[in-house]
Automatic annotation (TrEMBL):
Source species taxonomy: Eukaryota, Fungi, Dikarya, Basidiomycota, Agaricomycotina
Domain Alcohol dehydrogenase-like C-terminal: 174-302
Keyword Oxidoreductase: yes
Source organism of the structure: Somion occarium
Location of the Oxidoreductase N-terminal domain: 37-117
Protein name: Enoyl reductase (ER) domain-containing protein
PANTHER family documented for this protein: PROSTAGLANDIN REDUCTASE, PROSTAGLANDIN REDUCTASE 1
Short name of any one Pfam family annotated for the protein: ADH_zinc_N
Keywords: Oxidoreductase
Record SUPFAM superfamilies: GroES-like, NAD(P)-binding Rossmann-fold domains
Length: 356
């Protein structure tokens, strides 16, 4: 294969507030000889699609600051959940032409495992599913779907059998919509309350079966929950004031699943004032990170069995906000913090990634 143009998105500065394209990252291009680039026993992957996720903001920090997600390194390309196609291999596990889901760099061509050794690094072969684009393995069948499934499978599956009401915040995002459709399939008797931040997103929530959908920017969350609760299970993607409102409207022995804290990712709005409700109402709180721990691996093995057929049957629908080309990756990263995206934000790096 002749030399190709290899685009790269490089991390160049730590943000203190919102991430800004061109300020904290930079798109560059280089010429790459795919026949001679050193693999050191690994594989060369042609990247087809990359996920853009809110948690990436946690990675944009000085490496001396300890957090659950590994820090990005100044001067190095970003990496995240992706799907690609093997073009060269020095690893007997993979052959050219294999489709792979993994944690690859923001490049047109990514060497795996390369120089990165953090705990999120992974790679596995995936099938070409009829009727679905490969981008599904960077989005719906990757971080958001697996996050929703793992949290529900490990913590809420049994509780749901004796519950009446579920509340989901930041519900129009990829995790929230997956969870709504999955719960509607396996626990159809649960009343679902869900909140989002735009009229269009409220319309989406209603269209997928939410019983009570409201705009948290225009409506008092605590009043809605008081009217339609009490809440037996709260799936928390927000923290901050939303978590406070939920705490004050939980049922006794209620369950809170802490999945995200988007209110504190860019601004300091994550403080909780009513934590005393935890002991007053004998609440259980479970926090988790997708893929971490033996229980997570057990849950994700079940995901691979249960979820792809539900997606193919359209019980759980693929909703993507596509950003075309690697040059658009910075815009995609920004979008998940400003609410610009509608559906799972994915970067279609190569046209094969978006073709069903």
């Amino acid at each position: 294969m002749p030399k190709v143009t290899n685009g790269r998105v490089i991390y160049v500065a730590h943000p203190t507030g919102y991430y800004e394209p061109g300020v904290h990252t930079k798109y560059v291009e280089e010429q790459l000889d795919t026949d001679t680039v050193p693999l050191n026993g690994g594989i060369l992957v042609k990247v087809l699609a990359i996920s853009s996720d809110p948690y990436m903001r946690h990675r944009m920090r000085d490496e001396s600051i300890p957090l659950f997600a590994p820090p990005l390194k100044i001067g190095e390309p970003l990496d995240n959940f992706s799907v690609g196609k093997v073009v060269r291999s020095e690893d007997p596990t993979y052959t050219p032409g294999d489709y792979v889901q993994g944690y690859f760099t923001f490049e047109n061509y990514s060497v795996y495992p390369g120089s990165t050794t953090h705990a999120f690094k992974h790679c596995k072969k995936v099938p070409k599913l009829p009727g679905l684009p490969m981008s599904a393995f960077a989005g719906l069948l990757a971080l958001p779907g697996k996050t929703a499934y793992q949290g529900w499978y490990l913590f809420a599956k049994e509780k749901a059998k004796t519950s009446k009401t579920l509340y989901i915040s930041v519900a129009a995002g990829a995790v929230g919509t997956f969870l709504i459709e999955y719960v509607k399939t396996v626990h159809p008797y649960l009343k679902i309350i869900a909140s989002a931040g735009t009229p269009a997103k409220i319309d989406l929530l209603k269209s997928i079966g939410v019983d009570v959908a409201f705009n948290y920017k225009e409506t008092d969350t605590a009043k809605v929950l008081a009217e339609h609760g009490p809440i037996d299970i709260y799936w928390d993607n927000a923290s901050g004031p939303t978590l406070d409102a939920a705490l004050c409207n939980m049922s006794t022995f209620g369950l809170i699943i802490a999945c995200g804290a988007i209110s504190s990712y860019n601004e300091d709005q994550g403080a909780v004032k009513h934590f005393e409700k935890v002991f007053e109402r004998s609440l259980s709180i479970h926090g988790f990170v997708m893929g971490i721990g033996d229980d997570a691996r057990r849950a994700l093995a079940e995901f691979d069995k249960e979820i792809p057929p539900l997606v193919q049957a359209r019980n759980i629908k693929l909703r993507e906000h596509r950003f075309q080309g690697l040059k658009s990756a910075e815009q995609a990263l920004r979008s998940v913090h400003t609410g610009e995206n509608f559906g799972k934000a994915v970067v279609i790096v190569d046209e094969e990634g978006g073709a069903a």
